[in-house]
Amino acid sequence: MSADNSCADVSVPLRNLLNSVQCVRDRVKDGESNESNGVFNLSNFWDTLMQAVKAASQEATKLSLAFSKPPLPTQEDGEKFAESIQKSVLALSTVYYWLPKSHGITLRRLVRDATAEVLDGIVQLVDVIVSSPLQSLSQEQLQSTGGVWSACDQFAHLPRDNRAAVLGVLASYIGVVKDAIEEMEQAQAESQDPFSDVLDDEDQDSRGNQDTYWSEEDRQLMAPCQGLMKASAACLRKLLSAVKANGNVSMPETVAQLDDLADISKEISPSVDDLVLSLYPPMDYSGVDQNVSVLYFDTAFLSSSLRVSHVCLEADLNWVQFLNGALDHNLQKIKALIQGSS
């Protein structure tokens, strides 16, 4: 049998495998959990999931090694490799489906995304091998194999319950908001011209245009806008500390509350980003007004949701009331300045 015929023969099971893994991956991204009335043990789930992840990594490694140097595997060997990969992929996706929504939507999203990333990596690896099975081990195949390993390794760092999952996403939101606030503060502190580091020498004339500068009126408006953003950031930090101290995942009701708080919090960082962008010159006051209203609403909604949740204790109510006062104060000041400028 010629090398070309051998290549064609072994590619058949690999192409079938490629299509199969793609279908499994797409179902994982779009599918629902298998809700059951039976007893679900979260610890057993994680043990089984980690075993499935390890098996998927090992099978991907075996496949990559088999196609890393001549001679090319026979069609029979190719079918065996494809079957082993297929079993590991189905096992991994099946275990993922075990995780019920009642244990947390936030947690489930993280496990879903991690599972899909492993499947994406296997799809890429098989595709590379199918595309060039007769070549020696290529850089692309090395990278694809490493991508599977990296995707599998991240499972060890996933949160193990919904409280930890919510804490993780809240920390990421806080980081984004913090960066946006610092960006605006730095732009104010570094130069009278916030575009001085991005304009070319040819644009010197335009840099004299007032559209590249903040007027005194603009700067007066920016102060309460920054106050509003800092109040939003403070609300997120308070929520983080409350979830850390009081988050309860022993009941479906409290698990669902944590998910709701995480989903509401998600709106804060893009609202802060939109407000920051509208504050750059030339400042559009109507745009600022609109973005301020959105951020105020998002933060007030988060504050009220926090107040009635199980993570907010009686001792926290004074702080929530203080936050609401800060939101109202900054909003009223912003509205007054915008109205006065018109």
Automatic annotation (TrEMBL):
Region (Disordered): 185-214
GO CC annotation, single: nucleus
Domain of life according to the entry: Eukaryota
Name of the protein described by the UniProt record: Cyclin D-type binding-protein 1
Xref: Pfam families: GCIP_C (PF20936), GCIP_N (PF13324)
Domain Cyclin-D1-binding protein 1-like N-terminal: 49-189
Family designation: Belongs to the CCNDBP1 family.
The keyword Cell cycle appears for this protein: yes
Keyword match Cytoplasm: yes
Record Gene3D superfamilies: I/LWEQ domain (1.20.1410.10), Talin, central domain (1.20.1420.10)
Keyword vocabulary terms for this entry: Cell cycle, Cytoplasm, Nucleus
Cyclin-D1-binding protein 1-like C-terminal domain residues: 199-295
Cellular compartment(s): Cytoplasm; Nucleus
